[in-house]
Design goal:
Number of strands: 8
Order of helices and strands: HHEHHHHHHHHHEHHHHHHHEEEHEEHE
Radius of gyration: 29 Å
Number of domains: 2
Low-confidence stretches: 522-531
Shape: elongated
Helix content: 55-70%
């Protein structure tokens, strides 16, 4: 037994080592993208800047280790900024809000242990693909201003309304008024590198992905501007800005446990639990959708991982954590092949604050914006829209509604609107496919055959009632075939029985019932309705 376990451990270690040449460069890219996102989400949430870094570290290291997902990256989520901002304001204390995060994490942990993650299996693929496409479009729209040096809005914002009250579309329509030449040059060079990298021999260098090269080029170009063209130097507000580290004790904030009996604390905890859990399950499904290896992870295990992560984040002064689609997409596009990339990006986040913040503050936001532009394009390719359209309107319309709803509202509201649309089309399809209707004329007499589907529910009641009571002419020969039906709802049986007993006799209809049972129960063998 011990030798078998030892062999398994050795194989696991060998596998991990073999992937390091892909995972380490990918983790650096994810870290560089995640760093300003962590700071931006904290800033927009009205929380201390370092609370975003703390959440990012725990999301990468703790959640990354416990989670079974190989590609999902967790951290502070832009989707929770409004919740965090209003919650801190309502409670009047960041420390009380930290207690709500701890309680929300405990709820997630319990939900995972109770296997509540099954709800992820009920999210249609057209809604998931709509979510991905919407995030891609928003990324593109939001990063264009950053790419030209207009950094009034924080990098992680997923709303078209900016923090200064301006709308992103207004900014884009007036883009010429906001262009700064230095960031624009960095963005153009970075974009060319990202586009043409795979067409050069450099693509074979596993430890140097295009996205990492873009960051190095951006910082180098700005250094070159200092020496050769001072007018092009990128100002400090357009660079990464990590707060200076003043000791671990100044970094950690503990919750105020005196609010444990407060109804408001528990109410906010439940809100954070619900929003964070739904967003995590949605993102996990979305990540698995774009993972080239199509690896699956247990949603229950993910809830447990997120629960433990949020409890720890709340205990040490971090904001709420979820799985984040933007970082996860960057992780996949950067070539990560195991979750070591996720884990190591968390270590780098911690090291960035403690050891080398001054070096990272040389990186232009335009470089990071270019990486996110390409990520957005890969999520919202035109080919995806074409493919969804070719799959039929019952797939395309819920997909398109999800895209538009997320763009013009927010992620969760948009997904719920998309789900409602998808359910409508499912019901509509079920409504139409409850039976097959065939009508022929034989010797001046209508012969009608109605073949019922495998499952006929109360949702089909109106349609079947209309067929039997309205559309069947007098003096017809009618056969209702239920031999293929595994289940027929009592409401439908009642309509058929009433039709046989009353309408068929009144209209002189010759009725034949095939394979229709008087009861559909698993506990006993049903009888056949007799003519």
């Amino acid at each position: 037994m011990r030798s078998t376990l030892a062999k398994q451990n050795l194989r696991a270690i060998d596998y991990m080592i073999s992937k390091l040449k892909y995972d380490i460069p990918a983790s650096i890219v994810v870290f560089l993208v995640a760093l300003p996102l962590c700071l931006g989400v904290a800033l927009a949430s009205g929380a201390p800047m370092l609370s975003g870094i703390i959440a990012g570290v725990i999301g990468g290291v703790v959640v990354g280790i416990i989670s079974q997902s190989h590609a999902s990256v967790s951290g502070p989520a832009a989707g929770l900024t409004a919740v965090v901002l209003t919650s801190i304001s309502d409670l009047g204390s960041f420390e009380l809000f930290l207690l709500s995060i701890v309680l929300a994490g405990a709820m997630q942990l319990i939900a995972g242990l109770l296997k509540a993650g099954f709800i992820a299996n009920f999210i249609p693929s057209n809604v998931i693909k709509g979510l991905l496409a919407a995030i891609g479009i928003i990324l593109i729209l939001k990063q264009i201003p950053h790419a030209v040096g207009f950094d009034k809005d924080y990098l992680a914002n997923k709303s078209l309304w900016q923090e200064d009250g301006e709308h992103t579309l207004y900014i884009l329509l007036n883009l010429m008024n906001y262009i700064t030449l230095g960031p624009l040059i960095v963005s153009i060079v970075s974009l060319l590198v990202m586009i043409f990298w795979d067409k050069t021999p450099l693509k074979n260098i596993g430890f140097l992905p295009a996205s990492l090269m873009v960051v190095l080029i951006g910082a180098s170009l700005n250094a070159l501007f200092y020496w050769m063209a001072p007018s092009l130097v990128i100002p400090k507000e357009n660079l990464v800005n990590i707060p200076s580290f003043e000791g671990i004790t100044n970094m950690i904030t503990v919750p105020n446990f005196s609010g444990f009996k407060s109804y408001q604390v528990w109410s906010i905890a439940f809100t954070v639990f619900a929003v964070a859990s739904i967003e995590t399950l949605l993102n996990l499904e979305a990540v698995e959708n774009i993972d080239p290896f199509k690896r699956r992870a247990s949603p229950n295990r993910e809830l447990i991982a997120q629960g433990i992560g949020n409890m720890l984040s709340g205990l040490v002064g971090g904001i709420p954590i979820t799985s984040v689609i933007v970082r996860s997409s960057v992780n996949i596009n950067a070539g990560a092949q195991s979750k070591f990339s996720t884990n190591f990006h968390g270590v780098l986040l911690l090291a960035s604050v403690v050891l080398f913040s001054s070096i990272l503050n040389l990186i232009p936001l335009a470089s990071l914006a270019t990486i996110l532009l390409i990520t957005g394009y890969k999520l919202a390719k035109v080919s995806l829209f074409k493919k969804m359209y070719q799959n039929g309107l019952n797939q395309f319309i819920p997909f398109l509604v999800t895209v538009l709803a997320i763009i013009f509202t927010n992620l969760l509201t948009g997904v719920f609107i998309g789900l409602a649309t998808s359910v409508f089309y499912i019901l509509k399809s079920n409504f139409k496919n409850a039976y097959h209707y065939e009508k022929v004329m034989v010797k001046n007499k209508h012969e009608i055959t109605i073949r019922l589907a495998e499952e006929v529910t109360f949702l089909n009641k109106a349609r079947i009632k209309e067929i039997l009571l309205v559309k069947i002419p007098k003096g017809s020969k009618v056969t209702i075939d239920g031999s293929r039906s595994n289940y027929i709802d009592y409401d439908i049986l009642e309509i058929i029985q009433d039709f046989a007993a009353i309408q068929a006799k009144e209209k002189n209809i010759e009725l034949h019932l095939i394979g229709i049972k008087s009861k559909y129960e698993l506990s006993n063998l049903p009888e056949i309705i007799k003519n």
